[in-house]
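Entry 14. Two folds queued back to back today. First construct below, sequence then C-alpha cells.
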Amino acid sequence: MKIEILGTGCAKCVALEKVVEQAVAKVGGFHEVVKVDDIMEIMKYNVVSTPGLVIDGKVVSIGKVLSIDEVVKLIEEAKHNA
C-alpha cells in the first residue's frame, strides 16, 4: 500500500506526516509512506488545500490533520477495498 502525504512543509503537513507514521506503526505490515512536496505533483491530485492524504492513488483527506485512529480507519478501509 502506498500512502502519500501532500504538503509543502507547513506545520499541518509536518503534523500529518507524524500521525501517518504512528498509524502505520499501529496497523503493522508494509506500507510505503511518501512525502510529496512538489507543488506540481500536488496539483495533479487537484488538492488546493494542504495537507492532503492519498492512499493507493485515491485522495482521502484534504486540508486537515487527522487523528491516528482516523488514519488507521482509512488504511483499513483501503485494504478492504483493494
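Second construct, same run, same settings:
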Amino acid sequence: MLSMQIYKYIRFILILLILLNTKPVKSQFVEIGIMGGASNYSGDLSNESIAFKETHIAVSMFGRYNFSNKWAVKGFAGYGKISGDDKNYAEAPSLSNPDGNFQYWRNLNFYSNIFEFSVQAEYNLLPNDLQSNSSRPFVPYIFAGIGIVNFNPKTTLNGTEQELQPLGTEGQGTTIYNNLKKYDLTVYSIPIGAGFRQKIGESFFLGIEAGVRFTGSNYIDDVGGKYADARVVGASYGQKAQDLSDRSIERSADVPPITHFNEFDPRSDRKIFTKDLYFMGGITLSYIFRGKGMDCPNF
C-alpha cells in the first residue's frame, strides 16, 4: 500500500517535470543551499494543535535545478526533532472539573528525531531572473513534493530513555492482539509549503521557507489506537512495556495505584486528522551555479 502511494506521487512529479522541460534548455541554473530553523509537530500529543514550547532546532541541505524563471525541482535532506506531552494540555481534577480531562489521565509524552529525504516541485509566483548577475529579484514561491521520513518515538521512564515502538504499547505484535502489527519507522511524507528568497550579491540567495509535512503514519507519537490489556503487553515485552502502555497509573492516589483506562478504551482522541503532521522551516542560503548558453526559457 505504501509503495503504491509513493509511486503515484513520484509519477505525478515526473510527468510534471517532463512537461516543464519540453523546450530545450541550454542554460543550466543549479543552486545548492542550506536551511537552519525549527521543527514541530501536530498529532495526538499536541491536542491536534501546535505547542510552541515543543519547537526544536532543524537543519537541512538542498539542491535546486531551475528549469525556467518560473519552475524548479529541489532535492531536500533535512533533520529535526519533534515532541509532544499531555502535560501541556492537562487539567487536573478540581471543584469545577472533578474528573479532570482526558490528557491529564492519559499522561503520555514522546520525542523523536526525524530525517526527511524528499523531491519537491517549486513554482515561482514572480519570474526569477537567473541570467542576470546584477539584478536582485524578490522571488516568492510555493512547493509540493513526495519523500520519506524516518522517526523513532522515545520517552523517559524512571530516568531512563525508552524506545516505544519495540514495546508494542497498544498490543502490537502480541499473540492476543495478533491483528495489530508494529508500525513502520519509515513512511512517506508529502511536503507542502511556501517561501521567498532575495538575491544578495551576484550569486547568492537569502530567504525564508516553511512547510507542513503530511505523513503516512498515525504513530509518529506512538499513539493512534486503543488501550490494550497492560498485562498482555507486559507478558510479551516486560514490565517497562506494561508501565508505558497505560501511564494513568502514575496519576493515581490510591494504594496500590490503579489505572484509569480499560481495555479497548480509546488511546487516541483524534477528531480532525487521521495521520500525524510535522513542520519544518527556517532561513535559507543558496549559491547559484550558472551554465553557459542561451537565456533561461520563460514558461
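Quick look at the second one. The beta strands are 29-42, 56-66, 71-85, 109-124, 138-151, 154-157, 160-163, 186-200, 204-215, 277-290. The chain has one domain: 2-29+39-290.
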